Fold this protein.
Amino acid sequence: MNFFHTAVSFRDLLQSQIDDCSEKLKTCPEGSLRCHKHGKYYRYYQFFPDSSNRHNGVRHHIPRKNIELAKQLAYKTFLSYQIAELQSELRAINSYLILHEKSRSIIPKLMTRNEGFRKLLLPQFYSLDEELEKWVSEAYETLEEFSEDLNVQTITGEYVRSKSESMIYSMLIQKGIPFRYECKMELGGRDIYPDFTIRHPASGKVFVWEHFGLSDDYEYQSTIFTKLSKYLRNDYVPGCNLIITFESKNHPLSQNLIHDVIVQYFG
């Protein structure tokens, strides 16, 4: 667990403690405690501040027989100070979390985009399993355009654009293959959003999986060729680090084919 996750847990703990103290505060008697030394002893007063000036008000002596009232008011003072201290801590944690959100580390990009850096640096910081778990759980930028087409629900409750993509998504989940769906990637100076960006569970190597439905549609074929050309010009090679599947009306994508592809590339 890194400091960010520790901070999130601590923030939740602080809020829980504040809520608990606030509930206890509601049960305390009205007013506040004033304490003055009188000889060897102390005299206690229940103080009711003036609504216009909290330093002025009315105080009533608390007799010794009603000492429980004084104890309750003392506890009320303690709770008030405790809440103030916890809120101060909470503000500090929230400030850090906001700053962390605004200045995301470039390390995940470095480790993902540059295979050479990843191979050299990875063993020095954390295990591959930890790095892949972190990569999967981190937020990432997705394709916002045509979001209305995300209408097929997957086994995790997320939505994808087609039944075939849902099948691929589900099989990757079942096989424990780390991946991201429509994650933004810079390719040749431009942003693209592959269907699936996948990390090999044994090596961490990055793979892209593009599924082309409607491959028998003449107009869509030009889109396929343009996208494949862009990958090829940027060192993504079919059979190496680029996975391609197709389907048409007469030849839909099957579970068996998805399974065979995953076994071929990821064992």
